[in-house]
Amino acid sequence: MISKFETFKKLHTAADLFILPNAWRPKSTMLMEQCNYPAAGTSSAAVVTSPGYSDGEGMPFEDYFFIIRRIAASVEIPVTIDMEMGCGKIDAAVYDNL
Q: pTM value?
């Protein structure tokens, strides 16, 4: 079985251009899959402002990661994640979030 990573990688080398729509919650990602998009992305600004946080890492990482996990788990298509600055201001914080 081909992994989501391999599927996503093949989209980047295919002869045809593919559109990568951006999701901000699980339902929007599910709708993209239902519309036959081969993959989806996330917009960090859309994800954090949807529940009322400010963009620029204004949302606690645990809350952000919860939504991202739900988005990725809601579909079978690959999802690429916008992690802003890795959700950390220093290298050690980014590393802890891997």
A: 0.81
